[in-house]
Amino acid sequence: MSLDQTAAPNVYDAEPIPDAARAEIDRLLSSGDLFRYTAESDAPVTLLEAEFADYMGVRYALAVSSCSAALFLSLKALDLPRDARVLIPAFTFAAVPSAVVHADCIPVLVEVGENYRINMDDFAAKLDDTISAVLISHMRGHTSDMDAIMALCDARGVPVVEDAAHSLGTKWHDRKIGTIGKIGCFSFQSYKLVNAGEGGILITDDPELAARAIIMSGAYEHNWKKHTGMQNSFNHWQNRLPLYNMRMQNLSAAVIRPQIAHIDRRVTDGRANHDYVAHALNQTPWLHVPPALTPETRAPDSIQFNLVGFDSDEDARAFQAAAKSHGISVQVFGLSSDNARAFWNWQFLADQPNLPATRSMLMRACDVRLPARLQKPDLDFIIKALTEAAKATHPTPAKVA
To answer: How distant is the alpha carbon of residue 289 from its chain centre?
Structure first.
């Protein structure tokens, strides 16, 4: 018996933009002052960078057009040679290997386990003398073993960039994700914790990396002087680096800035929602939500779970269809047509890797939006829809691994 789909929660809309943004947007529209470098000081983008750096507890922040742009600029700022090999997880969004390719580097994919985190044996085996950098995607907010990753990379002198697009507010040993590697990159796309439609930001404590990234982002001529506290070696790099023009504009910053004050509350609410649904799903024999690693404090705005005992793709698709009939859309990463998170669809890569563990995981790993604004009746609806769909399509209880 299907649930009443009219009662299904809307899991796609974000929270309303705070009222504080509206007055600033009206001011900007009235003045037409949308370019970040027009004002001598205190442009909205400049203020955002200072406020975000302060929130994250780092020295420098650079706001750009997207997280993909931040990843690209990070790799370029590291001054990697052409065709440098960059280690990345095989479970990530296509924009991540795309950023590596765009930076004239070669992605090297690492196996990911059923808990959505890097397989450390495969990582250690592939982190050899040919690897110039590591780009860690904390995919869907799941943190891999950063202690082991940093120990291995530090021992080899290999820089680490963190793709924290899904991990704003996540902590590892009470240290904010994005501050562990050389550079951290975040997203302000609509489905992320802070919503500007599009936008990204990179953070670092390294003045040279910051200087290079700022110039390449599009700080032409002497506009780098408008980055407060950022003297560094700009004079040395000016006109020696290409300009990629990946700047953020003032309207985006005006939308983002008042949301920074809401991050901690959204993290708390999102974690409570996730853990409530995860506990319920883990009571069934068919659905399994992997636990957090011990040092990890998550900040989720979605939930991922594995189908247990669904031995055929047809069974998994039947579950997906049943959940949809109950009003809840479930993405099974490996079964969704042309899914940008399935590595075998990244046909722009020169060599298609053989990654059986990651492929197996993606064929049964499910994804459901779970924004922080949902209330308990919404969560109960989602739990019931998923549980009934699993029961209907796999009535014989499976054994949880």
So the answer is: 19
Assess whether 299 and 242 both reside in one domain.
Answer: no
28, 251 in Cβ contact below 8 A?
yes
Number of domains in the chain: 2
Integer Cα distance of 119 and 128 in angstroms: 16
d(Cα 333, Cα 264) in Å, to the nearest integer?
29
- Residue 180 tokens, joined: 């562990």
Indicate the residue type of 46: T
Contact criterion met (CB below 8 Å) for 230 and 222: no
For residue range 85-135, what is the model confidence (pLDDT) as tens digits?
999 999 999 999 999 999 999 999 999 999 999 999 999 999 999 999 999
Give which of 137, 142, 140, 154 is closest to 87, Cα–Cα: 137
Please write the tens of the pLDDT for every residue from 309-366.
999 999 999 999 999 999 999 999 999 889 999 999 999 998 878 999 999 999 999 9
User: Which of these three, 214, 238, 259, is where a domain ends?
Assistant: 259
Domain that holds residue 28: 19-259
Write the CA distances from 73 to 88, 161, 212, 332, 338, integer angstroms: 16, 11, 9, 31, 27
Are residues 243 and 321 both part of a single domain? no
Residues 234 and 347 in one domain: no
d(CA 79, CA 215): 13
Question: DSSP letters along 205-233, please?
Answer: S-HHHHHHHHHHHH--TTGGGGSTT--TT
Domain contains 326: yes
CATH, residue 275: 3.90.1150.10
Are 85 and 132 in contact by the 8 Å Cβ rule? The answer is yes
